[in-house]
Design a protein that fits this description.
The protein is α+β, with helices and mostly antiparallel strands. Among the domains are: 78 residues, Helix Hairpins; 187 residues, Histidine kinase-like ATPase, C-terminal domain (Heat Shock Protein 90, 2-Layer Sandwich). The protein contains nine helices and twelve strands. α1 packs antiparallel against α2 and α6 packs parallel to α7. The longest helix has 57 residues. It starts with 9 loop residues before the first helix and ends in an 11-residue tail after the last strand.
């Protein structure tokens, strides 16, 4: 089993790294200084060796290492200054015993000149004959064949470098301890914003979801991290809010759907039980019960179909796209509305106005890409909504044309305009179908709710058909969004209502375009 010692704390890692780097830097500088000092001291010794002129050997010295037999001057041990040593190799190549110099120790030299591996005039380091201090020696050859070796000990150099080495080790140890202590304090101070960020994160996970990081200086790494952390928190909060809102809408949708389905289902169940429990019910009442059962079943079928269509539009793009003539769809929708709502003033007009005397032939063809059946359903829903929720004398006008999106022409947000989808970029070429009425209009609160599912406004036409399930405008808005368009409402009390369908102008349209 291998034990891996790895610090878990970032603070500990930083302190260790800074301590190791500081120690290595100190030791490297000390080693460089030690090498320079040793080279300088050795150079001084080489300078002394090269500029030293040794005295000649004693003439009374016996050759080949034999003792002198006659009188004569003997070499003096103090004939040389300081700690020089001078050795001679005779003409026969043997080391002579009449060396000059005093003191203990000598370099390790061979007994014969042939074994002497020294170049003339080049200082060389040789080990000591006894002891641990090396010697620095230089060799010269005299004209008479005599070789002279001058030596100086390196004990001063080695002593100085040894002391310097121990001083460097001590300085390195002190520097390591100082860097460890001061580095720990500096790292703790530098990581204080991270500690605050950690405590804030722990408090957020503990339930304080509204907290934010206060260290947001963009000039520092921790500040930029704090900005990114706050941005992430904002996105998480927004996602949670969207999730809560989606869950609330889903619960409200399920409750509304259950309520809408419960009403016809209860009627069907009641009338079915009436027919079962009272088989002798008069034929008139039985026929009425059958009609009510069929009517409620049809209502449930329409509701289920609308819910299925909404689900399908919400999760699948428009599968079938073809060139659609919006003018023809609008004309067909107007004709169907006139049949379904006899006596209503429903007319087709160009975008931008036209009046009753404006003929159908004066209208321009407006084409876009999309699903013909879905777009026809949008126009039919808008016309049914206008006929059901306006007084019998209110006029309904369908206008078709092309525009560039803007506050006045539509497609963008402005006061008094509501929509369930995002606005289009200003200046976008778009095909438009408007369904406008001169009815009583809607309040701002009501206008904000008309695109919600199962919302049903008050029917101002008591004699008209029964209001739908409240999904018509929601379906129309979803279809518009699936076609990358927008369905919006311009209204205010007393000024009527204008539902505007805007679709991308992806194919050729009429020549006239409202700016």
């Amino acid at each position: 089993m291998i034990l891996r010692l790895r610090p878990r704390s970032t603070r500990t890692r930083l302190v260790l790294i800074s301590t190791v780097l500081a120690t290595v830097a100190v030791l490297a500088s000390q080693a460089a200084g030690l090498a320079v000092m040793r080279a300088w001291l050795t150079g001084q010794i080489d300078h002394r060796l090269t500029h030293f002129g040794p005295p000649p050997p004693s003439r009374s010295a016996p050759p080949h290492g034999r003792a002198s037999e006659g009188p004569g001057p003997l070499p003096r041990e103090d004939a040389l200054p300081s700690d020089y040593r001078v050795y001679f190799y005779g003409a026969d190549g043997r080391l002579r015993p009449d060396s000059l110099g005093s003191g203990d120790g000598r370099p390790r030299l061979p007994a014969t000149a042939s074994s002497l591996t020294l170049d003339d005039g080049r200082p060389t380091t040789v080990p000591a004959d006894r002891g641990s201090s090396d010697w620095r020696v230089i060799a010269e050859t005299a004209p008479d064949g005599l070789r002279v070796v001058v030596a100086l000990p390196l004990d001063t150099v080695e002593g100085a470098t040894s002391k310097l080495l121990w001083v460097g080790i001590g300085i390195g140890a002190v520097a390591a301890i100082a860097v460890g202590l001061l580095g720990s304090a500096a790292v703790r101070l530098g990581l204080r914003p991270l500690d605050r960020m950690e405590r804030t994160a722990l408090r957020i996970t503990g339930g304080e979801a509204d907290l934010s990081v206060t260290d947001t200086d963009p000039r520092t790494e921790t500040g930029r991290l704090g900005i990114a952390f706050n941005t992430m928190l904002d996105q998480v909060r927004a996602a949670l809010h969207r999730k809560d809102a989606s869950e609330q809408r889903l619960r409200r949708f399920m409750a509304d759907a259950g309520h809408e389905l419960r009403t016809p289902l209860t009627s069907i169940q009641g009338f079915a039980e009436l027919l079962v429990e009272h088989p002798r019910t008069p034929a008139t009442q039985r026929r009425e019960a059958h009609e009510l059962i069929a009517r409620n079943a049809e209502r449930m079928s329409r509701l289920v179909d609308d819910l299925f269509l909404l689900a399908k539009l919400g999760y699948a793009p428009v599968a079938h796209r073809e060139t659609v003539d919006l003018l023809s769809l609008a004309a067909d929708g107007v004709g169907a509305a006139v049949v379904a709502h006899p006596g209503r003033d429903v007319r087709l007009a160009p975008l931008g106005g036209g009046g009753p005397d404006r003929s159908r032939e004066a209208l321009d063809v407006v084409e876009t890409l999309g699903d013909t059946h879905q777009l026809a359903q949008v126009i039919a829903n808008l016309l049914a909504n206008a006929c059901v929720h306006t007084p019998p004398g209110a006029r309904v006008e369908v206008r078709v044309g092309t525009v560039r999106t803007g506050p006045d022409t539509g497609g963008t947000d402005r006061p008094g305009r509501s929509s369930a989808t995002a606005p289009l970029p200003p200046g976008t070429p778009a095909c438009v179908v408007e369904v406008a009425d001169d009815g009583p209009g809607l309040t701002a609160d009501t206008a904000r709710q008309v695109f919600e599912r199962f919302y049903r406004g008050p029917a101002t036409n008591p004699g008209g058909p029964e209001p739908g399930s409240g999904l018509g405008l929601s379906i129309a808005s979803t279809i518009a969004e699936a076609h990358h368009g927008r369905l919006e409402l311009d209204t205010r009390p007393g000024s009527g209502s204008t539902f505007r369908l805007l679709l991308p102008r992806s194919v050729g349209a009429g020549p006239a375009t409202r700016p």
